[in-house]
Task: inverse folding
């Protein structure tokens, strides 16, 4: 996949959650035709986007509408999601973020991860998870940056 200016690493947290900010970036970039169609658009609202919305108990289209209204920053959008879908405890957020950061490592996503690594010719990289794959594929090095600790 290409490097997409304005699309952050899935490791970067908004509040207590990883990935949420990346989903907001994709929504905003798609709205201004700055998100590559071939690599990203087909999966909007699906995959990790869908998992994130399911965890928050909000509809993707509702979150998209709130995001594109432009009156809320990322933290306010997360607060809106918690108000709409119900608050989550620190432990729930930690568990969900931990699961997401490890997706593809010795789980049912491992086969898909291996396939994507091959398709992107990233076999020599120290990729253990889908988050690692996304970062390396987009030109970031999460291992050198220890992105999971940020």
Result:
């Amino acid at each position: 996949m290409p490097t997409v200016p304005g699309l952050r690493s899935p490791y970067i947290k908004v509040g207590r959650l990883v990935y949420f900010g990346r989903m907001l970036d994709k929504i905003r970039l798609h709205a201004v035709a700055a998100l590559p169609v071939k690599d990203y658009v087909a999966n909007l609202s699906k995959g990790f986007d869908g998992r994130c919305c399911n965890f928050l108990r909000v509809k993707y289209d509702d979150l998209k509408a709130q995001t594109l209204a432009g009156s809320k920053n990322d933290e306010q959008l997360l607060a809106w999601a918690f108000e709409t879908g119900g608050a989550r405890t620190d432990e729930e957020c930690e568990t969900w973020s931990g699961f997401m950061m490890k997706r593809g490592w010795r789980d049912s996503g491992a086969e898909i991860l291996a396939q994507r690594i091959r398709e992107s010719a990233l076999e020599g990289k120290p990729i253990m998870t889908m988050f690692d794959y996304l970062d390396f594929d987009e030109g970031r090095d999460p291992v050198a940056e220890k992105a999971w600790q940020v």
